């Protein structure tokens, strides 16, 4: 027998011995089968959970959309009382003609009256200017001949800057800016209490020493 034949015979003998041992040892055969099967089947990738992924939150409260410029809240000043509205008026350095005429009428006709009575006089002047039956501006209403006795030669007399005139200026600004409703709304005429007027008009208010009519 040649050397190569001897080597082949020894190898075959070793395999036979290994097979006999495997048959006699079940655990060894099972382990050998698992190794063979694991090598013969392709590996399947397992899903990997990523704990860093953010969870979507549902039903979260939404913030209101920003308002457009034309939807912003009105920032006009609201006053609690007529006194507060009058007190808030700053006296301008330069007094224009309309303000001067209105303040002059308030001063000469109602400087001793409550603020509501002074505002009611201003209301009469404004209502006349809008009526279409009288001149169209404050000054032309005040200076209309035969209407206000304090007017001299078609002009409103100059008044010194005393406390009562400053109040009249403030009331005039309230009236011209329409920041407070007059209690004599709609009034077109007024006269002092105790005066017997020769007309039959609807009375709308009686304030202080004046009665107001439309």
Describe this structure in words.
The chain is mostly helical. It has two domains: 3-37, no CATH class; 82-213, Arc Repressor Mutant, subunit A (Orthogonal Bundle). Helices cover 44% and strands 6% of the residues. The protein has seven helices and three strands. It has helices at 3-24, 26-40, 82-87, 97-110, 115-131, 138-142, 163-177; strands at 189-192, 203-207, 210-213. Strands 1-3-2 form a three-stranded antiparallel β-sheet, covered by helices on one side. A hairpin with a 2-residue loop joins strand 2 (203-207) and strand 3 (210-213). Helix 1 (3-24) packs across helix 2 and helix 4 packs across helix 7 (163-177). The protein is globular and about 40 Å long. It starts with a helix and ends with a strand. Mean pLDDT is 77; it is low at 2-8, 13-40 and 47-76.
Rg: 52 Å
CATH superfamily of the largest domain: Cell wall hydrolase SleB, domain 1
Q: How many structural domains can be distinguished in the coordinates? A: 2
* Secondary-structure-derived class: mainly alpha
CATH topology of the largest domain: Arc Repressor Mutant, subunit A
Q: Kindly state the percentage of residues in helix.
A: 40-55%
Name the shape in a single word.
globular
Unreliable segments of 5+ consecutive residues: 2-8, 13-40, 47-76
Largest pleated sheet: 3 strands, antiparallel
């Amino acid at each position: 027998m040649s050397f190569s034949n001897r080597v082949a015979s020894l190898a075959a003998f070793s395999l036979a011995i290994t097979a006999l041992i495997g048959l006699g040892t079940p655990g060894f055969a099972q382990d050998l089968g698992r190794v063979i099967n694991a090598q013969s089947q392709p590996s399947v990738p397992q899903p990997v959970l990523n704990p860093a992924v953010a969870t979507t939150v549902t039903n979260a409260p939404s913030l209101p959309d920003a308002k457009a410029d034309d939807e912003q809240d009105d920032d006009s000043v609201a006053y609690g009382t007529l006194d507060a509205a009058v007190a808030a008026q700053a006296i301008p350095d330069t007094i224009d003609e309309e303000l001067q005429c209105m303040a002059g009428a308030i001063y000469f006709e109602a400087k001793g009256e409550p603020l509501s009575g002074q505002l009611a006089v201003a209301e009469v002047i404004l209502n006349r200017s809008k009526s279409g039956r009288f001149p169209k501006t404050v000054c032309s209403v005040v200076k209309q001949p035969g209407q206000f006795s304090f007017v001299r030669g078609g002009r409103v007399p100059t008044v010194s800057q005393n406390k009562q005139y400053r109040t009249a200026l403030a009331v005039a600004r309230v009236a011209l800016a329409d920041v407070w409703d007059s209690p004599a709304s709609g009034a077109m005429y007024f006269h002092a209490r105790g005066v017997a007027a020769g007309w039959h008009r609807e009375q709308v208010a009686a304030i202080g020493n004046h009665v107001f009519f439309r």
